[in-house]
């Protein structure tokens, strides 16, 4: 059934995918790189090649550090297929993809899944209103279109939020306020791991710089117990309740939310790979060995999709997985692999500290108001989910059946973790025991015509 | 939440799918205390893979007891829907305005006609149908594609939301005092005095009646009560689309529109054992047939697909049995859990409550395979 | 309002959004172009919820618009083309038949 065969298929052209391709092509392996965006770079290096011409300085040094990788990738000789969406990987390693209205199947001896991360949902009342975006979305607008809001309020916590506010300030945009939900509880649990974080002093220094510039250029509101976004047909403002009991209301039509990034597990779960609940990072991640090999002998995971580590860790992870595959194809490079393993560990040394510092408080992980929408796609509210729980729904899939949460196009990317935690909290089971939605292909929607284009007429 | 105080019930139902829920609900509404034991959230769960048809046409064409039973259930369905609506959950979306099975060739039309004609003959006027040629079908479904030759229309057919049905049955069961225990698959069943003892991972329970309604797992459980159920999995794949404006006046055998707006499109019949992966070639074929039926659906997006395992007996008809060695033990399985929900909730639950399967169900015993 | 943070130059491209003429730049991301033009609501979802772009990376499916007659296009995944006709899309009509 398959049209083309490759030795290596890499899914995702962010730092992990690009770096992996450099290693596999250098070793002479036939490599295809499939990505659903129009340009390489994934999200962290989005629009980088184009920005190298106009060079918006406010995007910062680390962004431009990705340029060399992007250039090398463009020259490496891999077959690069952008604007191409993978909707399934079968258990016989066929990759079903759709491009320009037509579906295809390709096969590969080895597959590297490097599909990156998504933001942890932040369900607050009013978060579905037009004008509310994720911080990642706001940052993408800066990168992709040099657009920034002139009245932005940022809500949440985490490095991506601080970086984006910093970029806003450097771009000359007036940030109305930053509502920082990091609290003493987070600091207490993170401090014991600070020594490990000191292995990456440049990362810490960068973070301190962002926080200092933010403090000096905008109002930072802390000790907030609840946040809600007001407005009818679009966002009009944010109302925060302080832990001390007071309230602060801020007018704004553009509110950007962020409370961390988590691996995007939709493709890996739909492929049937084993996953584990990562207690420290409070999210799901595929089970892999140290080189990124998944529970399937032929499939590797590299980059944030296997566990959050950031762009540099992702690139090394891509190299590491690719080297492991190259070794299995008869060209072992033990020292190189060891070097990648050690560098990978080094980049990940800051995670125990960061994961704990920026784990959102439970009252922000869960919605606080009954009418808050939890499943955006199907407009299922917290109250609706509680009603389904009262009807006896005891797991995410039964709950999905009872109230439609998770049945929309996004297949749980915007609600899954919240629903899981609501169920765990209701049943008393752990997050790991509660489990997650059973994800199925197509991992992204595909039209009937595209599906039908895959094969001949219905066999009677 | 998962600890329950009581350990003695009038009836225990093993299996929280459509069969178990309908029977459990039916028993509970007759005043019996019911414990429903369910396996894991990610177990095989045929009931959650259901298409949602309340379908009469063709059923039991060559086995009159099944035709009678199906017709009976179809007639009882409005009563079930009305009762369940009182549980207050989302509307079940029961529509019994008729249904179509679309034919893409003259041969298909002929085959269908012969089957339905045979069914009509032994139903003494109770079963009605009409073969619609292309022109007549076009009046009902103007968008049919050029490959469509016609359809068999049956006024008794309909559809419902099978997931909301499960929710309503479960809510109803709980409201009637029933208890549902998840992650509590049955491991052991034996007699203890005049009662039946059921062992699960969540503890032991006692009852006067046990109903095995665990789908494919019934094959393992039935011997524990001195019965047999020869069941095999038959895989079926379904795709679901994004929501569209309401445009399908009637459900068809392979394509129906839910009240929420999405189209459910099937299907396949595969003998591949306990295998539930979605195959791109199969769903491609499903898409192909959908577009042959309604070409205007070309740009409609499929948002998910699944494969589920039908609980299939050798002849495809239900297996209903009560144990002789363990009085009060019943084993119930079928693959038409939606259509038969009403008969299960009312009639079958009634038989079980009175501890005796009625004569009308004799033909469904496993014994029919022993000739 | 969204403002440009770099000098705006580039070939102008003409779009229509719900009948209104909008200008964009050649190579623009469609969602970005609409936001720049002050349009934050791209559609009405189930239960008549107004929605607009959220993630800008193709995973939230909120930025769905109808382009040149084809519905359910993710605006954040599309580059503008001169003459593109875009419409806000409304939730499918299932009113009266469904309660949820």
Descriptors:
heterotrimer, A: 460 residues, FAD/NAD(P)-binding domain, Arc Repressor Mutant, subunit A, 3 domains, 7-stranded mixed sheet, 5-stranded parallel sheet, B: alpha+beta, D-Amino Acid Oxidase, Chain A, domain 2, 8-stranded mixed sheet, 4-stranded antiparallel sheet, 8 helices, 17 strands, globular
Radius of gyration of chain C (Å)? 14 Å
Please outline the major beta sheet of chain A.
7 strands, mixed
The percent of residues in helical segments of chain A reads 25-40%
**N-to-C CA distance of chain C:** 34 Å
CATH architecture of the largest domain in chain A: 3-Layer(bba) Sandwich
β-strand amount of chain A = 15-25%
Architecture overview:
The complex is a heterotrimer of chains A (460), B (371) and C (100). Chain A has 460 residues and is α/β, with parallel strands linked by helices. Chain A contains 19 helices and 23 strands. In chain A, strands 1, 2, 3, 4, 5, 6 and 20 form a 7-stranded mixed beta sheet that branches. In chain A, strands 8-16-10-11-12 form a 5-stranded parallel beta sheet. Chain A has a 3-stranded antiparallel beta sheet with strand order 13-14-15, with no helix packed on it. In chain A, helix 1 (15-26) packs across helix 4 (67-75). The model of chain A is unreliable at 456-460 (pLDDT under 50). Chain B is of the alpha+beta class. Chain B has helices spanning 18-28, 64-85, 106-122, 134-140, 162-175, 218-221, 280-293, 341-353, and strands spanning 8-14, 34-37, 53-54, 99-103, 130-133, 150-154, 158-159, 179-181, 186-192, 195-200, 203-212, 231-243, 255-257, 262-265, 301-313, 319-322, 329-333. In chain B, a hairpin with a 2-residue loop joins strand 9 (186-192) and strand 10. The termini of chain B are far apart. Chain C has a domain at 28-88. Chain C has one helix at 30-36, and strands at 2-4, 12-17, 20-25, 43-45, 49-51, 64-67, 70-74, 85-88. In chain C, the strands form 2 sheets. A 5-stranded mixed beta sheet of chain C has the order 3-2-8-6-7, covered by helices on one side. Chain C has a two-stranded antiparallel ribbon with strand order 4-5. The longest helix of chain C has 7 residues, at 30-36. Chain C is globular. The termini of chain C are far apart. The relative contact order of chain C is 0.23. Chains in contact: A-B, A-C, B-C.
């Amino acid at each position: 059934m398959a049209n083309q065969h490759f030795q290596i298929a890499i899914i995702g052209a962010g730092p992990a995918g690009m770096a992996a391709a450099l290693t596999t092509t250098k070793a002479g392996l036939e490599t295809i790189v499939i990505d659903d965006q129009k340009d390489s770079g994934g999200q962290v290096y989005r629009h980088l090649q184009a920005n190298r011409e106009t060079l918006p300085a406010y995007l910062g040094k680390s962004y431009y550090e990705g340029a060399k990788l992007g250039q090398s990738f463009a020259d490496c000789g891999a077959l690069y297929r952008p604007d191409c969406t993978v909707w399934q990987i079968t258990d016989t390693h066929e990759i079903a993809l759709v491009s320009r209205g037509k579906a295809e199947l390709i096969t590969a001896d080895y597959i590297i899944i490097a599909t990156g991360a998504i933001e942890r949902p932040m369900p607050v009342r009013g978060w579905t209103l037009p004008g509310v975006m994720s911080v990642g979305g706001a940052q993408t607008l800066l990168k992709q279109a040099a657009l920034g809001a002139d009245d932005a309020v940022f809500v949440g916590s985490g490095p991506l939020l601080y970086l984006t506010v910093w970029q806003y300030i450097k771009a000359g945009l007036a940030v109305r306020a930053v509502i920082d939900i990091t609290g003493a509880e987070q600091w207490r649990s993170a401090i014991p791991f600070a020594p490990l974080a000191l292995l990456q002093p440049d990362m810490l220094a960068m973070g301190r710089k962002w926080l200092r510039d933010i403090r000096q250029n905008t109002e930072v509101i802390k000790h907030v117990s609840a946040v809600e976004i007001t407005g009818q047909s679009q966002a009009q403002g944010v109302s925060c309740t302080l832990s001390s009991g007071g309230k602060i209301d801020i007018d704004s039509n553009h509110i950007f939310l962020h409370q961390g990034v988590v691996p995007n597990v939709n493709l890996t779960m739909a492929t049937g790979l084993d996953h584990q609940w990562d207690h420290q990072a409070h999210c799901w991640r595929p089970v892999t060995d140290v080189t990124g090999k998944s529970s399937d002998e032929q499939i590797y995971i590299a980059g944030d999709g296997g566990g959050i580590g950031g762009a540099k860790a992702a690139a090394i992870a891509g190299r590491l997985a690719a080297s492991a595959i190259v070794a299995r194809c008869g060209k072992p490079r033990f020292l190189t692999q060891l070097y990648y393993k050690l560098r990978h560990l080094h980049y990940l040394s800051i995670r125990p500290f960061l994961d704990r510092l920026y784990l959102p408080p439970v009252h922000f992980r869960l919605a606080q108001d009954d009418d808050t929408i939890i499943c955006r796609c199907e407009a299922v509210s917290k109250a609706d989910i509680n009603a389904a729980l009262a009807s006896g729904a005891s797991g995410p899939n039964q709950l999905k059946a009872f109230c439609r949460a998770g049945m929309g196009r996004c297949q749980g990317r915007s609600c899954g973790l919240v629903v899981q935690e609501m169920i765990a909290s209701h049943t008393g089971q752990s997050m790991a025991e509660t489990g997650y939605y059973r994800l199925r292909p197509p991992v992204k929607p595909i039209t009937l015509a595209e599906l039908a284009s895959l094969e001949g007429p219905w066999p009677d | 939440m998962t600890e329950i105080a009581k350990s003695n019930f009038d009836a225990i139902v093993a299996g929280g799918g459509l069969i178990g829920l309908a029977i459990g609900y039916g028993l509970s509404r007759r005043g019996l205390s019911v414990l429903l034991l369910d396996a894991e959230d990610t177990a095989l769960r045929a009931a959650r893979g259901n298409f949602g048809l309340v379908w009469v046409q063709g059923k039991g064409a060559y086995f009159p007891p099944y035709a009678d039973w199906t017709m009976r259930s179809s007639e009882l369905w409005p009563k079930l829907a009305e009762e369940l609506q009182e549980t207050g959950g989302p509307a079940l979306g029961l529509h019994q305005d008729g249904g179509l099975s679309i034919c893409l060739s003259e041969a298909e039309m002929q085959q269908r006609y012969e089957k339905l004609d045979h069914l009509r003959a032994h139903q003494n006027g109770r079963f009605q149908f009409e073969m619609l040629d292309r022109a007549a079908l076009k009046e009902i479904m103007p968008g049919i594609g050029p490959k469509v030759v016609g359809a068999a229309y049956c006024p008794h057919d309909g559809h419902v939301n099978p997931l909301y049905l499960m929710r309503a049955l479960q809510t109803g069961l709980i409201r009637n005092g029933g208890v549902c225990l998840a992650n509590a698959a049955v491991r052991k069943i034996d007699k203890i005095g005049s009662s039946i003892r059921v062992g699960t991972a969540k503890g032991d329970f006692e009852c006067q009646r046990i109903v095995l309604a665990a789908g494919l797992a019934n094959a393992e459980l039935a011997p524990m009560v001195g019965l047999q159920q020869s069941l095999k999995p038959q895989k079926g794949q379904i795709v679901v689309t994004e929501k569209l404006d309401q445009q399908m006046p009637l459900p068809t055998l392979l394509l129906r529109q839910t009240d929420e707006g999405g189209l459910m499109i099937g299907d396949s019949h595969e003998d591949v054992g306990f295998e539930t992966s979605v195959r791109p070639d199969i769903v491609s074929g499903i898409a192909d047939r959908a577009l042959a039926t309604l070409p205007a659906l070309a740009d409609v997006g499929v948002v998910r697909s699944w494969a589920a395992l039908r609980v299939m007996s050798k002849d495809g008809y239900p297996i209903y049995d009560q144990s002789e060695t363990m009085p009060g033990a019943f084993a119930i399985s079928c693959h038409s859990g939606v259509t038969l929900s009403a008969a299960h909730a009312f009639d079958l639950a009634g038989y079980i409550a009175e501890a005796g399967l009625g004569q009308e169900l004799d033909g469904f015993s496993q014994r029919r395979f022993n000739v | 309002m969204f403002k440009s943070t770099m000098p705006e130059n580039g070939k102008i491209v003409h779009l229509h959004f719900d009948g209104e003429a909008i200008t964009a730049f050649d190579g623009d991301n469609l969602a970005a172009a609409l936001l720049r033009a002050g349009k934050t609501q791209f559609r009405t979802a189930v239960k008549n919820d107004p929605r607009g772009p959220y993630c800008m990376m193709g995973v939230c499916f909120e930025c769905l618009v109808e382009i040149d007659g084809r519905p359910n296009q993710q605006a954040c995944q599309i580059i503008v083309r001169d003459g593109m006709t875009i419409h806000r899309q409304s939730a499918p009509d299932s009113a009266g038949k469904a309660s949820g």
